[in-house]
Amino acid sequence: MAIYLVKRLFAALIIMLLVVFFTFVIFFQLSPDPAASICGQTCTPERIEAIRDQLGLNEPFFTQFFTFLAAIFVGRDYGSGASVVHCNAPCIGYSFQTNQDVLQGIVDRLPVSVTIAVGAAVLWLLSGVAAGVISAVKEGTWWDKGAMMFALAGISLPNYFVALVLQYLLVVQLQWLPFPTVVPFTDSPVQWFQAYLMPWMVLALMYASMYARLTRTNVIDTMGENFMRTARAKGLGRSAVLIRHGLRPSLTPIVTLLGVDFATLLGGALITETVFGLNGVGRYAYDAIAVNDQPVIMGVTLVAAFAVIIANIVVDLLYRVLDPRVRVSTS
Amino acid sequence: MSAHPSRPASDAPVLSVRDLRIEFPLGIVVDGSSFDIARGQTMGLVGESGSGKSMTSLAIMGLLPKEATTTGSARFHGDELLHRSDASMRRTRGDQIAMIFQDPLSSLNPYYTVGFQIAEAYRAHKGGTKAAAMRKAAEAMDRVRIPDAAGRVGHYPHQFSGGMRQRVMIAMALVCEPDLIIGDEPTTALDVTVQAQILDLLAEVQEMTQAAMLFITHDLAVVSQISDHVTVMRFGQTVEQGTAEQIFSNPGNDYTKALLAATPRLDDVVDLPEPILTKGGR
């Protein structure tokens, strides 16, 4: 078990390194000159050159890359003398446009993204799995066909469209919800809930649709397994056969998906956060993209990748608890 | 051994099937099957795949797919089994009639320990605490000669060998002490030496419990070892029926002869009839 974990963490480290490398290449080497975008409108070639010096952009590629890597562990100083800017470890970049440590910027906005992700995950897991199981049990009925049509629509409709329709319906037309304004939970739980309800619904619709389809397929497949026949031959009741023997094998793969989907959302629900004016990690990235603030874009990419990698390890560990076959074969 | 007080006199057959006919929307799969099985006796139901032997067993268990329609009768201790409600069939299934399936690996749920799966069958009918049912499971595993049964109740199906898995299935079938055991090709998926062990075990179990047994197989060599009576089926119809001795020493039907000829024997003789080619390449 310990050996397995060490192996996984080592593999994760290598993947992380590769991710850092490729993001670094894409954002610092292939993108427009970051010095130019920092420099702004009143720019002179001398000033660009000074900024390039300060950012270390005149160094050879690998020196830049290792400086970047080292900064994660020991922090980094940009420039020298009076204009020095210090970025504490772990430093994944510094935004000269917002004059902020990128990691700090992400950490500040993470609670919003976590709130969105948790709420949406609860909603989509409950509704998606329930709809999928009912569809499988009632395979071929009107319920099944209707639910699957709805799910197809849920997957196909773009997020921003659903978000705008929902806002129009619930806020403008029916006036069931006030225009969402984000307040801390402790100030007004009701208002807090109202602000997050629509983002949750928008994200949950898309994911629930995918989960419903997957759950339905898994349950139908499991129903055809020989052990289900054995369970019936034992004289178990319908619900015991379905719940005890049918759902456990059907839902275990859902765990894998949930871990990765949830982690992806921690890296920000870019569109949803932007449409609903929530200042989460996604919105941070969106704003950075608009002004070509490369350290921020790159930082968010790295953190998102990190979240997915960690989630994968957690899911694999969880799988060993959930599936006895995995537990034995890898220990 | 048995705890069923309402059992009629021992002469009456445990299972009595009369003119059983099973029809699917696409055609008839069993057409007029009739046989009796008495206490402690084994009926071998033989035929190639598609002959309707498994459908016969599923009809007795009440496990046929919804689209199947059945006529005729199948009486268990005099009570009709066909057309009963699922709830009422459920009380009989696994308790008084138990079934052993072909492929023990896929027939056991990979997510639960074998002890749990056996105990579950026990609790479904006899109730009691989980711990008591687990002890029953260990007892049943011990009875089918699984070494260190008490220690292995907590193991998962994939941790057993094929033969041991089938022993687990047999333990599951035995745990409620049924009066009728249906084996649907229970030795087919096993290799030959294990097959012989399982057949010996089944014979021994039957000796011990005096349960009636319906043994379904396509393998005449297996039938010859275990059956008292034999029914040969083909395309849903019974082509021949008799005691095992009659069938093996003096087959009356050409198809039976062909089946026998297809069985490799050590004392093979030269002038057996040519095998009959089957219809439609089945």
Explain this structure to me?
The complex is a heterodimer of chains A (331) and B (282). Chain A has 2 domains: 2-101, no CATH class; 103-329, Orthogonal Bundle (MetI-like fold), CATH 1.10.3720. In chain A, 75% of the residues lie in helices and 3% in strands. Chain A is built from 14 helices and 4 strands. Chain A has helices spanning 2-29, 34-39, 45-55, 61-74, 102-137, 142-156, 159-173, 189-223, 226-233, 238-266, 270-275, 281-290, 294-322, 324-329, and strands spanning 76-78, 85-87, 94-95, 100-101. In chain A, the strands form 2 sheets. In chain A, strands 1-2 form a two-stranded antiparallel ribbon. In chain A, strands 3-4 form a two-stranded antiparallel ribbon. The longest helix of chain A has 36 residues, at 102-137. Chain A is globular, with a radius of gyration of 24 Å. Chain B is α/β, with parallel strands linked by helices and 282 residues long. The termini of chain B are far apart. Residues 1-9 of chain B have low confidence and may be disordered. Classes of the chains: A mainly alpha (331), B alpha/beta (282). Chains A and B meet through helix 9, helix 10 and helix 14 of A and helix 2 and helix 4 of B. Chain A: It comes from Brevibacterium aurantiacum. Chain A: Belongs to the binding-protein-dependent transport system permease family.
